UniProtKB/TrEMBL annotation:
Keywords: DNA-binding, Sigma factor, Transcription, Transcription regulation
InterPro entries: RNA_pol_sigma-70-like (IPR039425), RNA_pol_sigma-70_dom (IPR014284), RNA_pol_sigma70_r2 (IPR007627), RNA_pol_sigma70_r4_t2 (IPR013249), RNA_pol_sigma_r2 (IPR013325), RNA_pol_sigma_r3/r4-like (IPR013324), WH-like_DNA-bd_sf (IPR036388)
Record field: transmembrane: none
Signal peptide: none
Protein name: RNA polymerase, sigma subunit, SigV
Residue ranges of domain RNA polymerase sigma-70 region in the record: 24-90
Gene Ontology MF terms: DNA binding; sigma factor activity
Length: 183
Protein backbone atom coordinates (compact mmCIF):
# COMPACT_ATOMS: atom_id res chain seq x y z
CA UNK A 1 0.00 0.00 0.00
CA UNK A 2 1.12 3.55 -0.68
CA UNK A 3 2.48 5.35 2.36
CA UNK A 4 2.27 9.12 2.44
CA UNK A 5 5.45 11.04 3.29
CA UNK A 6 5.76 12.92 6.55
CA UNK A 7 5.92 16.20 4.66
CA UNK A 8 2.64 15.44 2.85
CA UNK A 9 1.01 14.53 6.15
CA UNK A 10 2.26 17.75 7.75
CA UNK A 11 0.80 19.83 4.91
CA UNK A 12 -2.52 18.01 5.19
CA UNK A 13 -2.57 18.36 8.98
CA UNK A 14 -1.95 22.09 8.65
CA UNK A 15 -4.98 22.28 6.39
CA UNK A 16 -7.05 20.75 9.19
CA UNK A 17 -7.14 17.11 8.10
CA UNK A 18 -7.33 15.19 11.39
CA UNK A 19 -6.52 11.83 9.81
CA UNK A 20 -3.15 13.18 8.62
CA UNK A 21 -2.24 14.25 12.16
CA UNK A 22 -3.38 10.90 13.57
CA UNK A 23 -1.25 9.08 10.99
CA UNK A 24 1.80 11.11 12.04
CA UNK A 25 1.18 10.36 15.70
CA UNK A 26 0.68 6.65 15.07
CA UNK A 27 3.80 6.53 12.91
CA UNK A 28 6.05 7.87 15.68
CA UNK A 29 4.31 7.18 18.99
CA UNK A 30 6.05 3.86 19.68
CA UNK A 31 9.52 5.22 18.85
CA UNK A 32 8.88 8.37 20.85
CA UNK A 33 7.55 6.44 23.85
CA UNK A 34 10.55 4.08 23.81
CA UNK A 35 12.91 7.05 23.53
CA UNK A 36 11.17 8.71 26.47
CA UNK A 37 11.25 5.52 28.52
CA UNK A 38 14.99 5.08 27.97
CA UNK A 39 15.57 8.71 28.92
CA UNK A 40 13.47 8.86 32.10
CA UNK A 41 13.25 5.18 33.10
CA UNK A 42 9.66 5.42 34.30
CA UNK A 43 6.64 4.35 32.21
CA UNK A 44 4.31 7.05 33.57
CA UNK A 45 6.86 9.82 33.10
CA UNK A 46 7.65 8.47 29.62
CA UNK A 47 3.98 8.61 28.67
CA UNK A 48 3.68 12.18 30.02
CA UNK A 49 6.83 13.20 28.14
CA UNK A 50 5.56 11.64 24.91
CA UNK A 51 2.22 13.45 25.21
CA UNK A 52 4.02 16.71 25.98
CA UNK A 53 6.16 16.31 22.86
CA UNK A 54 3.18 15.60 20.60
CA UNK A 55 1.32 18.56 22.06
CA UNK A 56 4.34 20.81 21.40
CA UNK A 57 4.65 19.45 17.85
CA UNK A 58 0.95 20.05 17.20
CA UNK A 59 1.13 23.61 18.49
CA UNK A 60 4.25 24.36 16.43
CA UNK A 61 3.48 22.37 13.30
CA UNK A 62 3.26 25.54 11.22
CA UNK A 63 6.86 26.32 12.21
CA UNK A 64 8.12 23.11 10.58
CA UNK A 65 9.98 24.39 7.52
CA UNK A 66 10.99 21.03 6.06
CA UNK A 67 14.72 21.89 6.07
CA UNK A 68 15.34 18.55 7.74
CA UNK A 69 13.21 15.41 8.01
CA UNK A 70 10.11 15.60 10.21
CA UNK A 71 11.45 12.75 12.36
CA UNK A 72 14.57 14.77 13.17
CA UNK A 73 12.49 17.80 14.08
CA UNK A 74 10.21 15.65 16.26
CA UNK A 75 13.11 14.12 18.16
CA UNK A 76 14.81 17.49 18.55
CA UNK A 77 11.67 18.67 20.34
CA UNK A 78 11.72 15.45 22.38
CA UNK A 79 15.35 16.17 23.30
CA UNK A 80 14.47 19.63 24.62
CA UNK A 81 11.45 18.33 26.52
CA UNK A 82 13.62 15.65 28.08
CA UNK A 83 16.11 18.27 29.26
CA UNK A 84 13.22 20.29 30.70
CA UNK A 85 12.01 17.16 32.48
CA UNK A 86 15.40 16.68 34.15
CA UNK A 87 15.63 20.37 35.06
CA UNK A 88 12.23 20.26 36.76
CA UNK A 89 13.06 17.05 38.58
CA UNK A 90 16.63 17.89 39.60
CA UNK A 91 15.96 20.09 42.64
CA UNK A 92 13.39 17.76 44.14
CA UNK A 93 14.68 14.29 43.41
CA UNK A 94 18.10 12.71 43.53
CA UNK A 95 18.96 10.23 40.80
CA UNK A 96 19.50 7.68 43.58
CA UNK A 97 15.92 8.23 44.74
CA UNK A 98 14.43 7.75 41.27
CA UNK A 99 12.05 4.80 41.13
CA UNK A 100 13.13 1.66 39.36
CA UNK A 101 11.36 0.92 36.11
CA UNK A 102 8.22 -0.91 37.09
CA UNK A 103 7.34 -4.11 35.28
CA UNK A 104 3.74 -4.14 34.16
CA UNK A 105 1.57 -7.03 33.13
CA UNK A 106 2.10 -6.05 29.50
CA UNK A 107 5.84 -6.49 30.03
CA UNK A 108 5.36 -10.17 30.80
CA UNK A 109 6.94 -12.25 28.07
CA UNK A 110 6.86 -15.86 26.99
CA UNK A 111 9.70 -18.12 28.14
CA UNK A 112 11.30 -17.92 24.69
CA UNK A 113 11.59 -14.12 24.99
CA UNK A 114 12.82 -14.14 28.58
CA UNK A 115 16.49 -13.83 27.61
CA UNK A 116 15.95 -10.78 25.37
CA UNK A 117 13.66 -9.22 27.98
CA UNK A 118 16.33 -9.63 30.66
CA UNK A 119 18.99 -8.26 28.34
CA UNK A 120 16.83 -5.23 27.57
CA UNK A 121 16.36 -4.58 31.30
CA UNK A 122 20.11 -4.86 31.90
CA UNK A 123 20.84 -2.44 29.05
CA UNK A 124 18.16 0.00 30.20
CA UNK A 125 19.54 0.00 33.73
CA UNK A 126 23.08 0.47 32.40
CA UNK A 127 21.95 3.46 30.33
CA UNK A 128 20.77 5.15 33.52
CA UNK A 129 24.38 5.53 34.75
CA UNK A 130 25.21 7.81 31.82
CA UNK A 131 25.00 11.58 31.98
CA UNK A 132 22.09 12.95 29.94
CA UNK A 133 24.37 14.31 27.21
CA UNK A 134 25.88 10.86 26.59
CA UNK A 135 22.57 9.04 26.97
CA UNK A 136 21.04 11.23 24.26
CA UNK A 137 23.84 10.45 21.81
CA UNK A 138 23.53 6.70 22.48
CA UNK A 139 19.77 6.92 22.03
CA UNK A 140 20.01 8.79 18.75
CA UNK A 141 22.78 6.59 17.33
CA UNK A 142 21.59 3.12 18.29
CA UNK A 143 17.86 3.40 18.84
CA UNK A 144 16.90 6.11 16.35
CA UNK A 145 19.61 5.12 13.83
CA UNK A 146 20.79 8.68 13.24
CA UNK A 147 24.08 9.53 11.58
CA UNK A 148 26.68 11.55 13.45
CA UNK A 149 25.77 14.54 11.26
CA UNK A 150 22.10 14.19 12.28
CA UNK A 151 23.05 13.84 15.94
CA UNK A 152 25.26 16.92 15.80
CA UNK A 153 22.50 18.93 14.14
CA UNK A 154 19.78 17.80 16.56
CA UNK A 155 21.87 18.45 19.67
CA UNK A 156 23.57 21.60 18.42
CA UNK A 157 27.07 20.16 18.83
CA UNK A 158 29.93 19.33 16.49
CA UNK A 159 30.24 15.93 14.83
CA UNK A 160 33.46 15.31 16.76
CA UNK A 161 31.72 16.10 20.05
CA UNK A 162 28.95 13.65 19.16
CA UNK A 163 31.53 10.95 18.42
CA UNK A 164 33.45 11.73 21.61
CA UNK A 165 30.29 11.50 23.72
CA UNK A 166 29.31 8.21 22.10
CA UNK A 167 32.68 6.56 22.60
CA UNK A 168 32.91 7.82 26.17
CA UNK A 169 29.42 6.45 26.85
CA UNK A 170 30.31 3.10 25.31
CA UNK A 171 33.40 2.87 27.51
CA UNK A 172 31.30 3.57 30.61
CA UNK A 173 28.67 1.04 29.56
CA UNK A 174 31.29 -1.60 28.84
CA UNK A 175 32.94 -1.05 32.21
CA UNK A 176 29.59 -1.09 34.05
CA UNK A 177 28.36 -4.22 32.29
CA UNK A 178 31.64 -6.06 32.83
CA UNK A 179 31.63 -5.29 36.55
CA UNK A 180 27.95 -5.85 37.27
CA UNK A 181 26.92 -8.56 34.85
CA UNK A 182 29.93 -10.67 33.93
CA UNK A 183 30.69 -12.49 37.12
Amino acid sequence: MFERSDETLVKQALKGKKSAWITLVKRYEKNLYNYSLRMVNNPDDAMDLMQDVFLAVFRNLAAFRGDSPFKGWLFKIAHYRCIEFYRRRKPTQSIDDAPEQAETASDACPVGDLWSHQQANILNSALQILPLSQKLVVELKFFQHCTFDDIAQQLGISVNTAKSRLYSALDKLKHHLEIDHVK
